[in-house]
Structure to design on (127 residues):
């Protein structure tokens, strides 16, 4: 049951991530420039993920600290699978997909992934 709840929460995070991307592409880039928009967008998404984890922990009813880490790894795996699958479906090359992991042009995607992994643990510590 915890895995299903964790998946539902991740699906909500996915919706927030898509909305964040729309905001970045439609507003932030034209207002701030590409590099600043990517940094701000990455920070915003990281904070949103941690906030979602914080508020969803009571619903998950986690029994052990190991479960925080398992959920973080689960969310990370789902995120990577979605990101790579969606990018390949769009016809992007592997080199183009992997460029997001290099901090090039202000893209802080690796930090967002770290926030995804650590969010359940951070949320628990904040509670």
């Amino acid at each position: 049951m915890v895995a299903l709840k964790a998946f539902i929460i991740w699906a909500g995070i996915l919706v927030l991530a898509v909305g964040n991307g729309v905001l970045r592409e439609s507003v932030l880039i034209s207002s701030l420039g590409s590099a600043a928009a990517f940094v701000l967008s990455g920070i915003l998404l990281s904070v949103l993920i941690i906030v979602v984890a914080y508020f969803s922990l009571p619903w998950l009813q986690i029994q052990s600290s190991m479960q925080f880490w398992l959920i973080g790894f689960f969310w990370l795996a789902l995120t990577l699978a979605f990101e790579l699958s969606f990018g390949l479906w769009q016809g992007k090359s592997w080199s183009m997909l992997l460029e997001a992991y290099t901090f090039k042009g202000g893209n802080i995607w690796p930090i967002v992934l770290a926030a995804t992994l650590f969010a359940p643990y951070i949320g628990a510590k904040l509670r």
Observations:
- The mean pLDDT is 94.
